[in-house]
Design brief:
Helices cover 72% and strands 0% of the residues. The protein is mainly alpha-helical.
Length: 200
């Protein structure tokens, strides 16, 4: 898919454009209300649970990848059960945002967009890893699923050596899911109080 390949090549730039566009809409648009009553509460609780899972999952990944990226192949912990655990965490967190803001249709839309665009990102990264690690990575791909974790494959070493700066960066990256939810709630309250104007 041409669009997917373009996104894979310019993922960071497109992610920033999308994030800034969403922020503009949230700041100055009329907050949509898709749910009310107990369905809204249930959606928010489910979304918050998914955000917590995504955050903890990505921190767990950071402990196993921190400091070894491109220097070696991560094969333990979350990397033993799925080849792309960071993207699995992103998928969970992305869907979680939609549910947390009480817009289940947004969760579905975000999940579909993720499913459309990220396979090209993963294919690009897997080609690079195959170039770096050759047959060792090919065997890893044959044994470990790309997207759906298989926890029967789980293994972990007694000790993991990490570079603290990489783990710290991983934790800060993981926290964006929770910060996004907190920002949404703050903006929603500012709209409700009439402090933040709506332009459309």
């Amino acid at each position: 898919m041409i669009i997917g390949a373009h996104f894979a090549k310019h993922r960071i730039a497109w992610s920033r454009v999308i994030a800034l566009s969403v922020l503009f809409l949230v700041l100055f648009g009329t907050p949509p209300k898709a749910l009310a009553g107990w369905p809204a509460v249930l959606s928010e609780l489910l979304g918050y649970a998914l955000l917590v899972v995504a955050t903890l999952w990505r921190i767990w990944c950071a402990l196993f990848i921190g400091g070894i990226k491109d220097g070696d192949l991560a094969l333990d912990g979350p990397y033993a059960v799925v080849r792309n655990p960071l993207y699995v965490g992103n998928f969970i967190g992305t869907a979680g945002v939609g549910f947390a803001v009480q817009l289940p249709h947004l969760a579905v839309l975000l999940a579909v967009a993720f499913a459309l665009f990220y396979p090209a990102v993963v294919a690009r990264e897997e080609a690079r890893l195959l170039e770096l690690f050759g047959e060792r990575y090919r065997q890893y791909c044959a044994a470990v699923p790309r997207w759906l974790p298989d926890f029967s494959l789980y293994r972990e070493p007694e000790l993991v050596t990490v570079a603290p700066r990489h783990v710290r960066k991983g934790i800060l990256d993981a926290m964006w899911f929770l910060w996004a939810f907190a920002l949404w709630r703050l903006i929603d309250q500012l709209h409700t109080a009439g402090i933040l104007p709506t332009l459309f």
